Amino acid sequence: MTTPQQGQAAPPVPQGVPQTGPQPQAAWPSGGHGYASPIPVKRTHLGHALASEWTKIRSVRSTVWTLAVMFALVVGIGVLTALAIGSEEYASAPVLAGGFFGLMLGQLCVITLGVLVVTSEYSTGMIRTTLTACPQRARVLTAKALVFFLLSFVTTLVACTLTALVQAAMVGGKPVSEYADPKVLNEETVAAGEAVASAGEWMGATVGAALYVALLGLLSLAVGTLLRSTPGAITAMLGVVLLPFIVSLFLFGESVREFGEKLREYSVLNGLSSLFRLSMESDGGGDGWPLLGLLAAVTLAALIGAYARVSTRDV
What we know:
This protein is mainly alpha-helical. It is built from eleven helices and no strands.
C-alpha cells in the first residue's frame, strides 16, 4: 500500500527554519572529507624562487639603468684611456691596465644595485608579499644572492672583455720605454721589448676583475640585508671601498707609516688595481688574486650574518 507522498519530491524548507536530522555529506574529489584544490599543487623549490627573483630584478628600471651606466663607464673610459695611451710613442704600463680606471667608477653602480636588490623591498613593503609567497627566508636570500651575483658577473665580464680587446688593439705592440718600471711589466714584454699582454694579465683584467666587482656587489647585498636601509647600506659600502685608501694617504708620519702602508695594501681599490697589474704599493705588489680571496672570505662572513638576520628577525 502506498501513500500519496511516495514518489513525490519533498517540499522545500522555508528559509530561516532550522533543519533537523542527518544532512547529506558532500562528495569531495579526493574521496575524503577535507578540501581538495582544483588547481594542481606542486612542492616549491629553489628553482621557483630563482625564477621569481629573476623576474623582479629584470623588470625594474633601476636594474637596467644602473647596469647601463656601469657598462658605459667601463667601456667609455676604457676607450678614452686606450686613445690616450695609444697616442704615446712608448709603452710604460701593462697593456690592459687602462681598463682599471673605468671599472673603478663602474663598481660603484654594482654596489648600489646590490643594496637596492634587498632594501627596495623593505622600503616599499613588498618583502611581506615575497615572504608570504615563500616563507623559507633562507631560500629567498639565496635566490637573491645567486641571481644578482650571476647578473653582475656576466655584465661586468662583458664590459671588461670589450675594454681589454680595445686596449690590446691600441696599446699592444708598442716599444717599451726605457723608463718603464720592470716590476710592473711582465716577462713577455721585457723579453720582446714591446708591450705584450700575458695570459695572466688577460685573466686578471677580465675574469678576475668581474669576480672582484661581483663579490663587492654581493657584499653590498649582505650589508643591505643587515641594515635594511638604502642610505645606510650605500654609505657603509662607500666607506669600505674608499675610506681605507684615503685615510692611508694621510698616514705618512714615522709612527703610523707602516700602518698606512698595510691599510693601503689591503684596501679594495688596491685589490682591484692589482688585477690590472697597477698595484698601489711601492714595491709593485702581486697580481691581486690573494686580495680577491680575502674579499671572498669577508663576503662569506657578511652573508652568514645576513642569513642569521633574516632567520631570527621579523619583517
